[in-house]
Amino acid sequence: MNKISKAVVSRLPRYYRYLDELRVQKIERISSKELSQMMNVTASQIRQDLNNFGGFGQQGYGYNVQYLYDEIGKLLGLDVCHKMVIVGAGNLGQAIANYGNFKNRGFEITALFDSNPDLIGKKTLNAEIMDIKYLYDYVKANNVEIVALTLPKEPARKIAEQLVECGVKAFWNFAHTDLKFSNDIIVENVHLSESLMKLTYRISEKNNNIES
Amino acid sequence: MNKISKAVVSRLPRYYRYLDELRVQKIERISSKELSQMMNVTASQIRQDLNNFGGFGQQGYGYNVQYLYDEIGKLLGLDVCHKMVIVGAGNLGQAIANYGNFKNRGFEITALFDSNPDLIGKKTLNAEIMDIKYLYDYVKANNVEIVALTLPKEPARKIAEQLVECGVKAFWNFAHTDLKFSNDIIVENVHLSESLMKLTYRISEKNNNIES
C-alpha cells in the first residue's frame, strides 16, 4: 500500500464514526452524495479519499455500509486488539479508562498506573490502578503496545524514555510536551490547552472582523 | 488582518508553548534557527508563519522571547479573559476544571453542570458543580462565552442548541458527535477516540511495511 497522506488518514475516523451511526440505524447502503451531505464534505472528496484504498464503492449502487465500516476499521487497525495501559490515573486517566466504547473498538485497557497512594487499588470500569513502581515490569511481561500518558510534562518525558526501552512502540500523549523519539516510535499528541487556544484564536479573529 | 490559514493557526499554540518554556528559563532572545531546532520544524517555516502577522523578528537579532510570547498570546486571544463553563462533570469535565494553568492563560472556568445528584455541590479546583437545571439561566446571567461539552453525544446536541439560543458563541466539544451550526458559532472538536484511531492506523501501517 502506498503511503497515505496525513490529511486522508485524519479523516478516516470520522468516516468510521458516521458509518457506525448508519449501521446502528440499519441502513445498508449509501451513496457518496448522501454521505457527503451528512458529513458536510464534498462527494468528490469522499470518493478521492476512499480511492486511496482501492475504492470500495460501485457506480450506481454506492457503498455498502457494513462492508465499508469493516474495511475502514481494518485500515485503522481496529480488527486486532491493542493492549494499552494508562500512566497517570488522575481525572483524565480515569476518564479514558472509564470510556466503555474502547473495548468494542479494538482497545483493551489492562491497567492504570499512578504514584498516589490514595488512587492505588481503585478500580475503574476496565482496569485497576496499580503502583507505578510496577509499570516497567508490567509492560515487559504483558506485551503492552500503547501507553497513554496522562500525567504532567516533567515526569512524562523520562517515563516515556524508559518505556521505549521496555519495548513500547506507541504513545498517546496528553502531557503538555513534545516527546522526541526516532521515527520508529509513534506518538499521537492530544494537547488540550492548544486546542482551546485555537478556539480563542477564532473568537478574537471573529471579534476583530466585526470591529474592523 | 488577512484571513490566516488553518495550518498556521494550528501551529501558533505550539510556538506559544515553546516560547513559554524559554521565558521560564530566562532566555531573552532566540534566532529562528535555534527555535527551529528545538521545535523540529524548518527555520523558513517559522519565519513564514510569523510573517503572516507582520514578522516580529529583526535580522541579526532574532526574536525577543517575551515580546513574541506576548504578541502570539494576543493573537490567540489570551490577553482577554474568557468565561467558560463545563457541561458534564464526569472525570473528563473535572479533569479540565482541575487543570490549574487555564486561569493563567486567560480562561476562567466559573462553573460545571451535571444532572448527577452525587456530583452536584462538589468543588473542583476552580469552580463548583451545579445542577444542570440552572445551566441556561446561569449562562444568560453571566455572559458565558465558551461552553465545554464533556458529556455523551445524545444530550450534547440538544443542550448545545439551547445554549446557542442563550447567546453562547463557542463550544469546546468533547462529545462524540459533530455539532452543526451556522458559521457564526465556533466549534472546536476534541474527538478522543478519533485521535486514538489515528495512532492505531499508524501502528498497522508500520506493521504492514515490515511484513511487505
Keywords:
16% strand, six-stranded parallel beta sheet, globular, homodimer, 212 residues, alpha/beta
Describe the structure.
The structure is a homodimer of 212-residue chains. In chain A, helix 1 (6-24) packs antiparallel against helix 4 and helix 2 crosses helix 3. In chain A, helix 8 (153-165) links the parallel strand 6 (146-149) and strand 7 (170-173). Chain A contains nine helices and eight strands. The mean pLDDT of chain A is 89. Chain A has 212 residues and is of the alpha/beta class. In chain A, 46% of the residues lie in helices and 16% in strands. Chain A has helices at 6-24, 32-39, 43-51, 65-75, 91-97, 101-104, 135-141, 153-165, 192-211; strands at 29-30, 63-64, 82-87, 107-114, 128-131, 146-149, 170-173, 186-189. In chain A, strands 5-4-3-6-7-8 form a six-stranded parallel β-sheet, with helices on both faces. Chains A and B meet through helix 1, helix 5 and helix 9 of A and helix 1, helix 5 and helix 9 of B.
How are the secondary structure elements laid out?
The structure is a homodimer of 212-residue chains.
Chain A: H1 6-24, E1 29-30, H2 32-39, H3 43-51, E2 63-64, H4 65-75, E3 82-87, H5 91-97, H6 101-104, E4 107-114, E5 128-131, H7 135-141, E6 146-149, H8 153-165, E7 170-173, E8 186-189, H9 192-211
Parallel strand pairs in A: 3-4, 3-6, 4-5, 6-7, 7-8
Antiparallel strand pairs in A: 1-2
Helix pairs in contact in A: 1-4, 2-3
